[in-house]
Amino acid sequence: MTIEVGQTLPAGKLSESIGFDPENGCPLKPEPKDVGEMVKGKTVVIFGVPGAFTPLCSAEHLPGFVKHADEIKAAGADEIWCMAVNDAFVMASWGRENNVEGKVRMMADGSAEYSKALGLDRDMSGGGMGIRCYRFAMIVEDGVVKYIGVEGSGEFGRSKAETILEELKK
Asked: Which is the catalytic residue, given 26, 57, 82, 133?
């Protein structure tokens, strides 16, 4: 069952790697983060992508949130998270390449456990990608979903940064 407006986010963890080793440039050891604790008392925009470094995700989805981060935060979001079924090392490197620091947190769902808990997992094994998450975006206030836009294959509208910005202004 896919999470809906009015529902509380399920319990679960995501991983985040913050910072890079100055000697070899590799991301630092990831830390597990409790989603419930992280959203408590905050308005958080969470957007999910099928994969780091994939074409639409890299060309438009993540860059849109980086570009509009200040406006989204001015409209009421405390944080913006990018979530993907990739490991935290990949997410950190993708974030570094897209200059997300201070704008978007790169949250890894390496085994798709949280995507499954949200009901937003999809089997992309036919294309060699395994289990991933749908492209989506949601606005969460103190753990409760206030908006969610899930995209079908080839769609990109309900989860765009501009759409989230308009939803926050309502």
From this structure: 57
Percentage with pLDDT > 70 across the chain: 100
The amino acid occupying position 109 is D
Please say if the pLDDT value at position 154 is more than 90. no
User: In this structure, what token pair is assigned to residue 50?
Assistant: 């099928």
Q: Would residue 133 show up in a list of annotated catalytic residues for this protein?
A: no
Q: Please determine, for residue 46, whether its predicted confidence score (pLDDT) is greater than 90.
A: yes
This prediction has a pTM of: 0.97
How does 137-158 read in b/e, with b if 16+ C-beta sit within 10 Å? bbbbbebebebbbbbeeeeeeb
CA distances from 81 to 23, 43, 108, 110, 123 (A): 28, 11, 10, 15, 22
